Amino acid sequence: MELADGLPPRFGRLVRKLVTAKLAMSAIATLILPLTFLMVVIFRYILHWDLFAYEEWLLPISFWLYFLACGVGSYQDTQIRADILESYFKSARAIWLRRLCLHVVETLICFVMLYWTYLLLDSGIAQYPYWQKTIALKIPFFVAHLGIFLGVFFMAFYGLLHVYVLVRFGPQMIREPSPVQCKLMGEEQCC
Amino acid sequence: ADVTLKLAGTLPEAHASNRVLEDMIAEIEGANVGIDIKFFPAGQLGSGEELLDDAKFGNVDMVHASVYAVADPRIDFQSLPFLVGGADDIRKITQNPNAEYNKLYTEILEQHGIKHLSTVVEGLIGAVATKMPANPRGIGNQKTTLRVWSSQLAKSTMDLLGYQTTTMNWAEVFPAVQAGTIDGAICCTPELAYTAFAASDVGSVYLDYAAFTENQLIYMNGGKWAKLSEKQKEVIQTAASKAARRMSDEALERTDVIMGKLKEKGWEIVTFTPEERAAIKAVVKEKIWPSVADVIGQDFLDRLSK
Amino acid sequence: MLLGLSIFLVVALLIAGVAVPMAFGGVLILIALLGDHNISAFMGTGHWKMNTIIILVIPLFIVAGDLMQRGKIAGPIVAIAELLLGRIKGGLSGACVLASAMFGAISGSGAATLTCIGSIMFPHLRRNRYPEGFSAALLVCASPLGLLIPPSGAQLIYAWLTQQSVLKCFLAALAAGLLLTIFLIIVNFVMLRNAKNIELTKIDGSPFVALGKSTFNAVPAILMPVVILGGIYGGVMTPTEAAGVAAIYSIPVGFWIYKGLTWKIFWETLKESSVTIGVVMVMIFMVLIVSKFLIFEDVPTIARNMIYSVSDNPVVVLLMINVVMILIGMLMDDFSGLVLSASLLTPIAVSTGMDPVHFAAVLGVNMGMGNITPPTAPLLFLGSRVTGVSVQAMMKPTLIFITFAWLPTLMLITYIPQIPMFLPNFFFE
Ligand code: NA
Ligand code: NA
């Protein structure tokens, strides 16, 4: 089951669309990274020309990639975590309770992170007119910071949705394999 | 002590300026005006760009590092090619807090809540290369690829001098020069050319363009500065000025020795007569300087052109 | 005090199962509450630390590894390894180690090596009746060769964090990788000496013809390390650029030569890679922030004093550094562990007179091992997913490989500097 399946249908459709959009953007950015380096090499070696200051636009793109994709990671619940204690939770109720606790803690932390990211944006804007900009192309740092903000926002948002779905369906939603079993079987069979 | 100031630096542990910094700390603490200093050397807390931000936020109080135009495009005045002519100009800057050069730093940084204490000019920057360019003393196709840092000023200057330029992260420059990915870099004071390249037997030519300056500033968080007593301010300001002067003077003294060491390594050193340099400077000043008027402001440019 | 609480909190959160970036976010909350810092700078710090081209090697190696796996590039490499070792008892599993080492020369990560080699080799091992738990464990334990044998994302990041020459670090880690390969193959043969039922690989016709044919098939794959390493050493591109070129190179090879990629699979791969990249990079982002604010708390000095209070004998100090790194490796994944160890432990290692390039190899072995030591063992879980064997069944053989192959490698690399430093000195002195 995907997270959106546990939401009210219209809201679920919206959430699903947002995830699709983020994935499409991230996938394109993922392709842009290596393509840029190929271009750098080709430009230098074959065209004897410089892709001047390419890192100034490539790095903001990569920050959007990291954080939007990490938001999707929260949606899919594929954040990296230690699953040492997982096997000790056997009953549906225990598994459900553990998942609920983890998502509540993670979501609370995400909201604090979101507040810190808001402070980052705010302190950046407050420096007007002397915004931090890249030296050559004058791309404001705000661009990358905004990507970070949106990513953390979605991490917090999806965390909240996980909590909502867990509370809405209660322990009986734990009929499916646990995330560890998911890993064992491959994600496809799971979701 | 009444206050503990967190001081951060970026130069590698073995760099001579760190000894001067240690003496500066001893001088400030020894003045018994209630100041302790906690020193985080060698980039432990991050790059120069990052430290300026930390000083603005007040997470570090005092910094010895380069400042960059990311914080404010006007800071790029320091990258004006051939702005500082030689040892005499360097002394004028480091010994006189009221030099126009220092006043610009002070004015710009003040708008970011930073108190400028002193300027270190570590030396003048030339190019390191693994082969002799086609036209080293003139302007024209050099048939040589040099790495430039991400500054339009540096790039257009080197383009004008006839080099093919390429952008590359500093961390990758050494292996790239070594492997021949690039022929060299406009990067280095003679000292850095020696420690970063010649000491590892990479490179064979030093072009003493002296086109740009290698600067560090000593500066403080403005709020923290304002809270100090007059006596404390005086102690810090004196010590910081003295340290900057000493760092610059010692670096100048080392330059001759270093040039000798480069020659010992078998390097060819391209020097320029005053006339040759003046000829290059004239072209660069005419073609490049006006292009930055909209970045650093016509007003600043006029003040520097005097 | 704050340091002690921070360590306690992060360990508690990680063991409880809180996701790594949020666990470090939790520590940062503690630092915000108890420390004297302007919290507006927190997230900006992460941005500053990661605002460099060098760190892009991590996403580049992730997407390159995924494309190689879907593009079935590893097939012919495995075939060669099988032909070389496959016809003796225990040879097929030995070939897994060899194939992982060979594949290490094209991939930059352990995960890519495990998915690429494991997904091909495991069915062969099962068909020839090798014990399943043993086979899966061996594949898992050999996969960190992908990050020890250059190119290596981990070594690039270490070189960047500690301002060392990338090529020297590559060469130091290469020695560790080769040593580990030998140890793993030996332990493999010893463990299988009494195994029954194992079937030997049969080859019809002349083995030389078969070897020639596989080598021919492997040419596009073998060209990859030639392009990458040749490109780096030959001066065509920097290591970061090479990581990008490798990812692009695997696209046409995967589409038209080994035919594993279709447009649909390609798009799916990009999407999956992007999520992996996001999850990994944001985790590193948070770890970097916490590392910096722990430096404010004087962690390097405290750690150094603690270690030196036990003994100032370099042998003991290095042993303790290794113990600390093994503990870090047990709790964290390779990249976040690497970032933490490189920033906090390198100065201590250097204070014993160790060359930072030598430490690159020591750190590399530790972080490779951290990937397979429980409780946090991403490669163990990935291996379980790739092979379908439970982690429980892999546990005992894994511990044997750690004890008799990994730990001896670690000790030799730590205490005999000539091994890791031979190649860097040979090429650079
Ligand atoms: Na590798
Ligand atoms: Na581990």
Automatic annotation (TrEMBL), chain A:
The residue ranges of the Tripartite ATP-independent periplasmic transporters DctQ component domain are 37-168
Protein topology in the membrane? Multi-pass membrane protein
Q: Which GO terms describe its cellular component?
A: plasma membrane
- Superkingdom, according to UniProt? Bacteria
Entry keyword annotation includes Methyltransferase = no
UniProt GO MF annotations: transmembrane transporter activity
Q: Name one Pfam family in it.
A: DctQ
Keyword annotations: Cell inner membrane, Cell membrane, Membrane, Transmembrane, Transmembrane helix, Transport
Subcellular location as annotated: Cell inner membrane; Cell membrane
Give TM regions.
23-45, 57-75, 96-119, 139-167
Q: Which family does it belong to?
A: Belongs to the TRAP transporter small permease family.
Protein purpose: Part of the tripartite ATP-independent periplasmic (TRAP) transport system.
- Subunit structure, briefly? The complex comprises the extracytoplasmic solute receptor protein and the two transmembrane proteins.
Report the protein name in the record.
TRAP transporter small permease protein
Native organism is: Cohaesibacter gelatinilyticus
From TrEMBL, chain C:
State if Acyltransferase is listed as a keyword.
no
Q: List membrane-spanning regions.
A: 6-34, 46-64, 92-122, 134-158, 170-192, 216-236, 242-261, 273-295, 315-332, 399-419
Give the InterPro entries listed for this entry: DctM, TRAP_DctM
Keyword Zinc included in the entry's annotation:
no
| Residue intervals of the TRAP C4-dicarboxylate transport system permease DctM subunit domain | 8-419
Cite a single GO MF annotation.
transmembrane transporter activity
Q: Which UniProt keywords apply?
A: Cell inner membrane, Cell membrane, Membrane, Transmembrane, Transmembrane helix, Transport
Q: What cellular component terms from Gene Ontology apply here?
A: plasma membrane
**Record-linked Pfam families:** DctM
* Membrane topology recorded in Swiss-Prot or TrEMBL: Multi-pass membrane protein
According to the record's subunit comment, the protein's assembly and interactions are:
The complex comprises the extracytoplasmic solute receptor protein and the two transmembrane proteins.
Query: Hey, which family's this protein in?
Result: Belongs to the TRAP transporter large permease family.
Please name the NCBIfam families in this protein's record: dctM
UniProt function note: Part of the tripartite ATP-independent periplasmic (TRAP) transport system.
Supply the name of the protein: TRAP transporter large permease protein
The species this protein was found in: Cohaesibacter gelatinilyticus
Lineage of producing organism: Bacteria, Pseudomonadati, Pseudomonadota, Alphaproteobacteria, Hyphomicrobiales
